[in-house]
Write a structure and sequence with these properties.
Elements (H helix, E strand, L loop, with lengths): L7 E4 L2 E2 L21 H7 L8 E5 L2 E5 L4 H21 L3 E4 L16 E4 L21 E5 L5 H14 L5 E5 L4 E5 L7 E3 L2 E4 L8 E4 H16 L2
Parallel strand pairs: 7-8
Antiparallel strand pairs: 1-2, 1-4, 3-4, 5-6, 6-7, 8-9, 9-10, 11-12
Length: about 220
């Protein structure tokens, strides 16, 4: 999930070895057991965005604060999606931290996502994430350390949850992998991304070389690289 950080996988409570240079320092219990959503939420601190906790298919994922390039990419994608869904009035573009329960017994926090319009919600639901029960698109910005989780575990999760679009953004390769439930393989997009969600009158068309050029230009601006 992060560039400049490591997404740590914990299978049934057993921490896997992580890169010693990772930015996170959180240790997890070593006993072998399955995690419940209640236990994971108990570890979350509402005053802090990081580390990020997700529970996907019984696997606890702990992600530290991301690097600058990751957040620049997230910001650029959010601006594209937000402007488009606002114009088309088809939903709201958001970023994590979040607490999405798209499948029973899970917690998901995609980097960027679009929640569709919903019907009437109870007042209590408006104070938490239970009002969001489906997505129009989920987006993850990967790093080498999170590639397997994003491409395998999370992909299966979002497609099982009937999310119609799952995008994996590879900033280094300057491509977007586009997954959908009806495809067994992704579309690898290098030039143009065209997205037309249900209810929209016009498509979102993204010039991918221009998008990645903006991301790297902003990164160079703040790093002098």
């Amino acid at each position: 999930m992060t560039l400049g950080g490591t997404c740590r996988r914990i299978v049934q409570g057993d921490p896997l070895h992580s890169n010693r240079r990772a930015e996170h320092t959180m240790g997890m219990p070593a006993e072998s057991r399955r995690w419940s959503p209640a236990e994971v939420r108990e570890m979350q601190d509402g005053s802090r965005a990081w580390p990020r906790f997700e529970l996907i298919a019984g696997e606890l994922l702990v992600t530290p604060a991301p690097g600058a390039i990751h957040q620049i990419a997230v910001g650029e994608i959010l601006m594209l999606l937000s402007g488009y869904v606002d114009r088309e009035n088809v939903g709201v573009a958001l970023v994590s931290p979040a607490d999405l329960d798209l499948l029973f017994g899970t917690i998901a926090q995609p980097d960027v996502f679009v929640a569709p319009p919903a019907g009437h919600a109870h007042l209590d639901q408006l104070r938490d994430w239970s009002v969001v029960t489906s997505l129009l698109v989920a987006v993850e910005v990967i790093s080498p350390s999170s590639a397997r989780s994003d491409r395998v575990g999370k992909r299966h999760y979002y497609l099982r949850a009937s999310v119609p679009e799952y995008w994996i953004v590879d900033v280094d390769a300057r491509v977007i992998e586009r997954w959908s439930p009806e495809r067994s393989m992704p579309a690898i997009l290098k030039d143009t991304l065209e997205w037309h969600p249900a209810g929209a009158g016009a498509s979102l068309i993204v010039d991918l070389p221009a998008l990645f050029a903006r991301i790297w230009r902003k990164f160079q601006l703040i790093t002098g690289a």
